[in-house]
Amino acid sequence: MVDFNSTTFTNPSTFFLMGIPGLEDLHIWISIPFCSMYIVALLGNIFILFIIKTETALHEPMFYFLSMLAITDLTLSTSTLPKMLGIFWFSDHEISFHACLTQMFFIHAFSGVESGLLVAMALDRYVAICNPLRHSSILTNSVVAHVGMVALLRGLVLMTPHPFLVRRWPYCQSNVVPHTYCEHMAVVKLACADISINSLYSLAVIILIVGTDVTCISLSYVQILRTVFNLPSNDARLKTLSTCGSHVCVILTFYIPALFSFLTHRFSKHIPLHTHTLLANIYLLVPPMLNPIIYGVRTRHIRECVLQLFMTKIN
Fold first, then answer.
1. Domain membership flag for residue 143
2. Residue 80 and residue 68: Cα distance in Å, rounded?
3. Which residue from 63, 106, 184, 267 has the fewest beta carbons nearer than 10 Å?
4. Is 179 within 8 Å of 278 (Cβ atoms)?
5. Taking 80 as the threshold, does the pLDDT of residue 271 lie above it?
6. Residue range 145-161: average pLDDT?
């Protein structure tokens, strides 16, 4: 077991990830659902990528965005879960300073990318439902590629300063991070310096990304709902509402825990550490697990392609 006593150093070569503070005795039990979610996320997203690549009928804007989302989910979950399971199973708490900064960059950058892709998918649904006759002319392959590139570059560019800001501070009190991964504010709070620039920049990025993206998603679904309620068929309304409801649940599962994690680090000192850490893991674990199910299994085109693939192999 790692000794978590504070040490005195200036430039740490390693950090120690505590895991879930206060629940160390339950790490093995907590690892069971975490590992299960990771396996489902891996298999589900790889399967989605395979189906979209092999079936030409799925070479459409919605499925291109879905494949981008699957790659992002694989990156997010893989950047955290293997190390997290190492902590839970083998008490492997140590992580090098540069590995910690790398993990931090991937987590925050691809969280921003995922947020942008959720906006893209909401806008795709808006065009498909509200303006179906112009869907193919508006969302061409070129437009889809540009939208995906913008989502990627925005996440990478806005999150690149985080590890550089963390790297510049001296760490002279403790190298113990009370978290399961190198979350930005959890690490930077260990610095022996005024970290207000980190906090302000991080908060500005959150407001910019989440504020813009949630507004765009909300406006898209408001227009979608207006169109749905004007549909003549009750069955069509229920079917579209069911699909949109599932999508909204995935979106809320991503944004609510993410905002809780980001904001409580800055404004609340009364949330128990284990509660904060568990919720901070939800938005990195649950959406990658749910996205293949909600966007994949419940999508008729993918179900039909999967059935056709299996029937072909059987015959």
1. yes
2. 19
3. 267
4. no
5. no
6. 93
212: Cβ contacts below 8 Å, ≥ 6 apart: none
Bridge partners for 96 per DSSP: 14
Are 68 and 149 in contact by the 8 Å Cβ rule? The answer is: no
Whether 188 has a pLDDT exceeding 50, the answer reads: yes
Question: Nearest CA to 83 among 103, 57, 58?
Answer: 103
* The pLDDT value given to residue 206: 87
* Pairwise CA distance, residues 312 & 315, whole Å: 5
Token pair in block for residue 164:
């550089």
Would 1 be classed as within a structural domain? no
Q: Which of 41, 48, 80, 52 is nearest to 177 (CA)?
A: 80
Is 9 a domain residue? no
* CB neighbour class for 270 (10 Å; exposed up to 12, middle 13-18, buried from 19): exposed
Amino acid identity for residue 271 in this structure: I
- The CATH number for 33's domain is 1.20.1070.10
Closest CA to 249 of 219, 281, 286, 215: 286
The total number of structural domains that make up the chain: 1
Q: What CA dihedral angle connects 123, 126, 132 and 135, to 10 degrees? A: -10
Which residues form the domain of 213? 14-309
- For residue 10, the Cα-to-chain-centroid distance in whole angstroms is 33
- So what's the pLDDT on residue 243? 67
Beta-bridge partners for 176: 16
Q: Give the tokens for residue 42.
A: 């891996």
Locus of tokens 């419940």: 298
Calculate the average pLDDT of the chain.
84
How many whole angstroms separate alpha carbon 44 and alpha carbon 250? Answer: 15
At position 3, the amino acid (one-letter code) is D
Examine residue 2 and state whether it is found in any structural domain, yes or no. no
Q: Report how far Cα 313 is from the mean position of its chain's Cα atoms.
A: 35
CA distance 175 to 42: 32
Reported as a single tens digit per residue, the pLDDT across 220-258 is 888 888 887 777 777 767 766 776 777 787 788 888 887
